[in-house]
């Protein structure tokens, strides 16, 4: 076993090697400070390695290497992109670069939207209290150097300030057109008091991506976040979602992941005010060379809050799914209601599910439950369906969709849930 | 309709455990046959072997439905050919709505038989009418299959499936188990409504009381994997009065 100090020195050395000689992007005073602070954090923490506690199940090398592993472009076989049928404000990024021509005007009642690249050139911006600030807060107690790297070097992204209840969702669309793209995108979302919005994200992003979304929800605000990552096999990426919730505010964040060589999704959430709620859910389908990691950390820092983590993974042909989920309940957070479930359905003996559920509770009057299971298709259910005339493949698809339903049910608007469910059904029908 | 000839079956696991040991039975169109027998006589195994459940190996004999070999078919093919098993323990399927399940099953069978699939509207009309007869409310139709259903609701749901699928040969595996008197009447009325000249029933039960509601044409007594006696409805009454012991002793003599 390598001594701790030596491991740390190696991590720092790797960070310095990656960053030395790399200039921070140009920008105004507020962002330059945020970027240089973040760069220093990366140098202090070093780059992640598989020896780190939260990278034990997922090797980060492909995410930290100097060069991108090239990946062939994905043939969608005519499948329409997610959320295609919905009326929304579309903001398109191609290989991580904002494409104004392909995007809708950034005008919608109840929302202010601007590009990070433009805001960065101003000396003062509302986002300065959030940009890099939530990411920095999220470095403790678990280090997340990839997110700091993003804060330091990202030049693309949007800053969204929700002041009312916009009539349409804001849809962030990530297209991949290059076999070697290496994207870094950083979004900031501020939901003002009493405001409510829906943010959609979809698309394969880039050959390699590093995304950070920082979300600040003021008292009584509500954010719905629905993300569809898929179904491009040849890409790798890391997405960090940091969210701070004020009193009486609500967050629902759902992610569908289909395929991907290596995807790591970190969600870091703080319930800072009383009587708030945060629901984080994910449905994952992986077939073949697929490694998917959901790492969730929810901190109850105020009384009478509710949190739910619902993660479901369907895996086969060597696909690997990881779940690391934590509920931390501070001493002050009495009457916390915390729930966490992570389940995998292994469709053959080659697939693998690794789960690490954790509870850390310092308050004495709380309700927290967690469970993690791994299983195969129930043979009684399968026979029952077949005995009614449902062919075996159809019956299996029905049962797999039923397994994923609890996660999809976390999406508040059933229209979006149905859009994603139909895609999953098509995915299984295509794959047989 | 159903012809079973010298059927032998054993468990795939624990190989060597023989359950059916030369069972023969012929059911003509429109007939209702009952099979009675003590625990462990192989009644439920017969229903599983006929419907194609994994875990049993047929070592000898045959079973045909309208002359077609059942044992060579997948479970879904047997269903499409007209065989229906009402389960002793209907299975709960969380996450699959009862309506979705019914419609998928009805249309899968129609498709397998080369018939046109029912539209959502047509299906809804039919299912509502049939559900009403069985006192199955809209709420039960919306819920996931059998999840949170009482014993009686589960059995009524089985009969609703039977009514929707309109099979030729219905096997009822201890449909009376777990039912109170009112529920038994409701379920039996549902079954009786489906009786017609082109449809046959095989009713598996421990007790004679179900046969007061669903009157059989023929009663078989099963013991140790075989039919040991066949008679009319009076045979069921004899069992009710004297138990199986006399009949079993008689068979061994």
UniProtKB/TrEMBL annotation, chain B:
SUPFAM superfamilies (UniProt xref): P-loop containing nucleoside triphosphate hydrolases
Keyword set, alphabetical order: ATP-binding, Nucleotide-binding
Domain ABC transporter: 2-249
Stored Gene3D superfamilies: P-loop containing nucleotide triphosphate hydrolases
GO MF terms, alphabetically ordered: ATP binding; ATP hydrolysis activity
Protein family (similarity comment): Belongs to the ABC transporter superfamily. Ycf16 family.
NCBIfam families reported for this sequence: sufC
Database matches in PANTHER family: ABC TRANSPORTER I FAMILY MEMBER 6, CHLOROPLASTIC
Official protein name in the record: Fe-S cluster assembly ATPase SufC
The species this protein was found in: Roseinatronobacter bogoriensis subsp. barguzinensis
Source species taxonomy: Bacteria, Pseudomonadati, Pseudomonadota, Alphaproteobacteria, Rhodobacterales
Gene: sufC
